[in-house]
Design goal:
Thrombin, subunit H; mainly beta; six-stranded antiparallel β-barrel
């Protein structure tokens, strides 16, 4: 992998559980790290529901290996949040490929 292809700035956020003022657990995201990545659009489609049309894009990010990145993280890139679907690390642990989809925050 040529590192000059890492030209997209992304932010990783980790899901954390905290409690609100009455003690109810609330799931929030907190900053984990920022990174440079290679971005590749894999495809997209539109799902039609009773609510309306929901566009869906599947992408792949390639970043330098970091063991702190796992499935409890999400990615922020270009004003979009991405939910991690699959994390693939090669045997030498130089780079990690992350397959993700765009999702809207509730």
């Amino acid at each position: 992998m040529i590192t000059s292809g890492f030209n997209k700035y992304i932010v990783f956020e980790r899901e954390t559980t905290s409690t609100n003022e009455i003690g109810t657990p609330v799931e929030t995201y907190s900053f984990l790290k920022h990174s440079w990545a290679n971005f590749r659009l894999l495809g997209g489609n539109t799902q039609y529901t009773e609510v309306g049309a929901l566009p869906n894009s599947e992408v792949e990010f390639t970043v330098r290996y970091d063991p702190s990145i796992d499935y409890s993280c999400r990615i922020w890139h270009d004003n979009q949040y991405y939910k991690i679907l699959h994390i693939f690390t090669d045997g030498r642990k130089d780079y990690t490929r992350i397959r993700a989809i765009v999702f809207e925050e509730e």
